Amino acid sequence: MSQWLLKKFDDFSNDVIVVDGLWGSGKQLVSTLVGGFDRVEHFKYNPDYDYLCAVSYLGSMNNNATVTLLQLIAGRNQYYNLIGREVNLRWRDETGPRFHPTPFKFVSRLFSKDGEGIAKKIDEQNISNNITTHCIYPIATPIVDAFGDRLKFIEVIRHPLHLVTHWSRFLEPSRWRRVREINLTVDCNGYKVPWFASSWAEKFAKAKTFDQALMSVDFLCNWMIDVVQSEQYTGSNFHFIQFEKLVLDPATELRLLGKFLGRPQTKGIKKIMRQNAIPRKNIADGPKMGQNYRWTALEKDEKVYTEAMTMIHREGSADLVTAFTKTIKRYNSIWRGPLAEFE
After folding, report:
1. Residue 273's domain spans which residues?
2. Is the whole model's pTM more than 0.70, yes or no?
3. What is the average pLDDT score of the chain?
4. Staple 16 to which of 67, 147, 282, 290, CB 3.0 to 4.6 Å?
């Protein structure tokens, strides 16, 4: 083992925007909107950020190595962004040109020059990274240590009830056990368990799929609330966005977001809003596009809420449902959004 600590010398000074949230919370919508602010890159999902924070939390990598790798990857990603080395040309992907506010400028990077001038441009113009992560808010210490005052961490929160619907589909074996499924997991006697459930892996492994979804959302929501109440990750580097408020009143939420980022909106943000069907009359009025699991039903929020709650009582084990309803109350006591009135 080397006696010398790892270190990223001569790092960039640009902002690093991280948009995090649980699976199904609406991160992609927020990440896309963030890319509509001045001098912010179009978002991309690089699972390396998730992996590094998770393996550090699990004790499989020390903090020095984790922080150094995060800095190296963020710098490399941003430089590659600007020279077109990582331009995604897939038409269906939300990280591709179809959903970019200025698609021709985005694609033109394929023909751009590289070199030190691009690196200087990133810092001089403070062109920000736009990174999407999953479920890492409670374990964000390596991110905080890596980027310090450069960090702008946005946590997207969504009512737990609707998260369960998404998770119950995602954890179905036909999806969860796909070869192309790339979430970090642990091995519990041959059973695939998500990293965040490592402390209760046997319980996860023995549960039916719907109960796995209930337990996961319940655990992560309470973990997030615990961290919020501890004030471990608060202050000027952190900002919370409620998905429900964003889609119903985007003007207010985007104004607050712009203040947090310290950046004005560009004209392209109107295109992003139109593509994502915001503002909406109902939270469930999602866009009919993209490849992910999206709400598309044009139904009243109360009806969608009632049907989801009925399904949870029908499909979930009684003790887990009882615990989950307590979590909903706890969530509503902190983030009293539009769905709280249906509790």
Report:
1. 13-158+235-294
2. yes
3. 92
4. 147
**Which strands sit side by side in the sheet containing 16-21, from one edge to the other?**
44-45, 129-132, 16-21, 151-157, 238-242
3-state SS, residue 265? strand
Residue 315 burial by CB count (10 A; 0-12/13-18/19+): exposed, middle or buried?
middle
What's the pLDDT at 290? 44
Domain count, the chain: 2
Task: Give 186's DSSP letter.
Answer: E
Say if residue 191 is in the same domain as residue 148.
Answer: no
Structural domain includes residue 4: no
Which 8-state DSSP code applies to residue 171? T
Beta bridge partner(s), residue 154: 19, 239
Cα torsion angle, 205, 211, 217, 221, sign: negative
Dihedral sign for Cα 22, 95, 103, 108, please.
positive
Write the Ramachandran bin of 231: left for phi over 0, alpha for psi from -120 to 50, otherwise beta: left
**Are residues 57 and 166 both part of a single domain?**
no
What are the residue ranges of helices labelled H in the chain? 27-34, 48-57, 63-83, 103-108, 116-124, 141-147, 160-170, 173-176, 201-206, 209-230, 243-248, 250-261, 269-275, 301-315, 318-334
Whether the pLDDT of residue 12 is over 60: the answer is yes
Assigned domain for 304 exists: yes
What pLDDT is recorded for position 3?
Answer: 86
One domain, residues 59 and 153 = yes
DSSP 3-state assignment of 222?
Answer: helix
Residue 84 has a CB neighbour count (10 Å cut-off) of 16
Q: 40 forms bridges with which residues in the sheet?
A: 128
> Does a structural domain hold residue 320?
yes
271 to 36, 114, 331: CA distances (angstroms):
9, 29, 32
